[in-house]
TrEMBL record:
It comes from Alteromonas australica. This is Cyclomaltodextrin glucanotransferase. Residues 54-456 form the Glycosyl hydrolase family 13 catalytic domain. Gene3D superfamilies: Glycosidases. GO terms for biological process: carbohydrate metabolic process. Keywords: Metal-binding, Signal, Transferase.
Length: 567
């Protein structure tokens, strides 16, 4: 019997021995249940305590103008490269100057907002020219690479080398991660396994494109500007890193079945851990077979047992993306795309939507995921249109993200509604900049985000606690987050109101006697033998009431034991 089942058995035994009427959800909380041996949690994964701020490094802040290389690329310049929209709008496909120093200079800004980790786009070296193959990308276009550069980091030519645009003479990647920890911020590195750079259809074969170098700078693979079906891996050693069929646009399709490729990639991941990576976000995880991720996971966790990884499987089918989370497939968490879709539906038009839409994608019991509490939750990112919400829509989305199950991830600029509603080549990835950061504290989205994110930061039940839903209906939602693990005994009651008018709540279900403290206002309520908590939540508001005590309400204990058994 595993640990969780042993604890559940102990809880059931405790309930039986006390003779409590656990089937009555309104049973009096006066009945004392011995719960000292009962652990209650959603997850024990250490990384679940984090909140992640996602930075597209080149588009965040230019902290070191000396690494901009504005004249790089000659005829195929890599600097800025604007795309012009029909009304003069601009999006950019060249470098804009952001770097690691720009992130580090704003570490306190990120930490003060309530975040504890920064996910940054890949640090890998990318080609030094704009791509001269494929069809030209245009404003608002997609799935074309002509005229673009590797500013985003996903077109690696050397998976072991940092790109010259993001490091500085006095700031290596290792120095960056060390100094970020001094600000209480972990570093999540973005890694890729299925592709390198665009590799064919070039007018002339530009250096870097289709090429892969090893840790010593030796050329180990070269597509040679050939179409995949024209590669000859049997006779040309430089072709052996690639499949001879395409996958995504004109990107090289790495042969994940080749042991040499697997070693090259997995050893590069281990190298970046040595440079300070605290976690990995895995790009395009579904384009590589489970066997690769199982091998990678086994090798990494043999050296780093608690190392956290989450993948991007851009699918809205929970049963499909959940396969990556299973131990047999590497036990890699995933970005919660089903939740993302539901969040857009609910918070883009909060006055026309129902909170029950979100309840449907929580999968708290009988779900497909190995553990739904380990999922990374988000409402948009750099690969999709930013959420097209009002300020109140953002505020309500953040109130949900930082209280419900999962690990919240926020894309840079969302704290001020930056470029809302725009896709990748319409401004989604435009340069954020120091001026926006300096002005952000005056923005209402920022202020409310900072409030709720810091509540999560100091409330363990919101990080790892079991979620017990009470009511999801219309503009309001109510649920508990409960953590009873080691030396922490905490019950948090979350009340959400996305409506335009104040909402009165009276909670008596599972309500336990004691001194409850509301975490945003500091208000207190002493719940007595009548066992109910009453409050009014402001429009577009949230309240988090916390009781620091073990579960003593018999019906609540019965519910959490049953729910954990079905998780």
């Amino acid at each position: 019997m595993n640990k969780k089942m042993t604890l559940i058995a102990l809880a059931v035994s405790a309930l039986i021995n006390t003779g409590c009427a656990v089937s009555n959800q309104n049973a009096s909380s006066n009945a004392q249940v011995s719960t000292a041996a009962v652990e209650v949690y959603g997850t024990q994964t250490p990384f679940a305590s984090e909140a992640v701020y996602f930075v597209m490094t080149d588009r965040f802040v230019d902290g070191d103008p000396s690494n901009n290389y504005e004249n790089q690329g000659g005829e195929y310049s890599t600097w800025q490269r604007p795309l012009i929209g029909p009304n003069g709008e601009k999006a950019y496909v060249g470098y804009m100057g952001g770097d690691l120093k720009g992130i580090l200079n704003n570490a306190e800004y990120i930490a003060d907002m309530g975040f504890t980790a920064v996910w940054m786009t890949p640090v890998h070296d990318n080609p030094d020219y704009a791509f001269n193959g494929d069809e030209p990308i245009t404003y608002g276009g997609a799935f074309k690479d002509g005229g673009k550069t590797g500013y985003h980091g996903y077109w690696a030519t050397n998976f072991y080398k940092a790109d010259e645009h993001i490091v500085s003479q006095d700031l290596t990647v290792k120095a960056y991660t060390d100094q970020m920890r001094n600000h209480g911020l972990k570093s999540v590195f973005d890694i890729v396994a299925n592709h390198g750079s665009p590799s064919f259809t070039m007018e002339t074969d530009l250096p870097g494109y289709g090429e892969i170098y090893d840790a010593k700078g030796k050329l180990v693979a070269d597509h040679q500007n050939l179409a995949p079906e024209d590669l000859d891996p049997e006779n040309n050693p430089l072709h052996r890193f690639f499949h001879n069929y395409p996958d995504l646009v004109k990107l090289s399709n790495l042969d994940d079945e080749n042991p040499e490729v697997r070693d090259y990639l997995i050893n590069s991941y281990l190298y970046w851990i040595s440079q300070g990576a605290d976690g990995f976000r895995i790009d395009t995880i579904r384009h590589v077979p489970h066997s690769f991720w199982r091998e990678m996971s086994d090798r990494i966790r043999a050296q780093h047992p608690d190392f956290f990884m989450f993948g991007e499987s851009f699918q809205y089918d929970a049963n499909f993306i959940a396969q990556h989370t299973l131990p047999k497939n590497g036990g890699v968490s995933v970005l919660d795309f089903p939740m993302q879709k539901a969040m857009v539906e609910v918070f883009e038009k909060p006055l026309e939507s129902d909170f029950s839409t979100l309840e449907e994608v929580l999968f708290l019991t009988h779900g497909p995921y190995n553990n739904p509490y380990d999922l990374t939750t988000f409402y948009d990112n750099h690969d999709m249109a930013r959420i097209n919400a009002t300020d109140n829509g953002f505020i309500n989305a953040h109130n949900w993200l930082f209280t419900a199950r999962g690990i919240p991830v926020i894309y840079q600029g969302s704290e001020i509604g930056f470029m809302r509603g725009t896709s990748e080549h319409q401004g989604n990835r435009n340069y954020f900049g120091q001026d926006n950061i300096d002005a952000a504290p005056a923005h209402p989205i920022y202020q409310k985000l900072r409030n709720i994110a810091n509540v999560r930061k100091t409330t363990p039940a919101l990080q790892r606690g079991l979620q017990v839903n009470l009511a999801f209906e219309g503009h309001s939602a109510a649920f508990y987050r409960i953590l009873q693990h080691e030396d922490i005994n905490q019950i948090a009651l979350v009340l959400l109101n996305k409506g335009s008018e104040p909402k009165a709540f009276t909670i008596d279900q599972f309500m336990q006697q004691g001194e409850w403290v509301e975490q945003l206002s500091g208000d207190t309520q002493t719940v007595d033998s009548q066992a109910q908590l009453s409050t009014t939540v402001e429009a577009n508001g949230v309240e988090v009431w916390v009781l620091n005590d073990q579960i003593k309400h018999p019906a609540l204990l019965n519910t959490v034991v049953s729910q954990m058994a079905r998780q």
